[in-house]
Amino acid sequence: MSTQSAVRGWTYEEFASLPDDGNRYEVIAGDLYVTPPPDTPHQVAGSRFFMELGVFATRQHDLGELLYAPVAVLFGDGDYVEPDIVFLLHEHKHYRTKRGIEGPPDLIIEILSPSTASQDRGIKRERYAHYGVPEYWIIDPDRRRVEVYRLQEDANGRTLVSEWLRWQPVQGGPVLKLDVARLLANLD
Q1: How far apart are CA 188 and CA 170, in angstroms?
Q2: 38-183 is classed CATH 3.40.1000.10
Q3: What pLDDT, in 10s, does the model give residues 120-142?
């Protein structure tokens, strides 16, 4: 199944009423995108990163909340996405509502799938920068690397990491060093 786009305006109520059928529904810049459920390597990669980040950011340092899909991030009218992993610092916990995350998370992570690669690297990256997401990672299980976009550096620039990824969610705070090669090994 390939990604499908249907062009029209979408309200939150319409978005919230889409079926719960295993597909991922996102409205990005007013367009509906429907993608199939992720494959196993996608899920394995996501769960590995989620566990490492969770231990560091919630258990060891109590910096905020880490959420795994499905979780809606509601940026504004016509922009409702479901990233794979979302992190909110404690100072931004008020963004978490019953409907989802209603403000820019401090970190958004997407795990590439063949059906989502063009959106993850294109329109979603652009929208995340537009709404002020400070850090965005694209985990590429096939190439065994992470594409890192940091808003404060350059919204259009990226850093490719295939060995060690350093994450410092709070300036001057603790640093997590992720072994990307280990986390993306043996996904099949």
Answers
A1: 34
A2: no
A3: 999 999 999 999 999 999 999 99
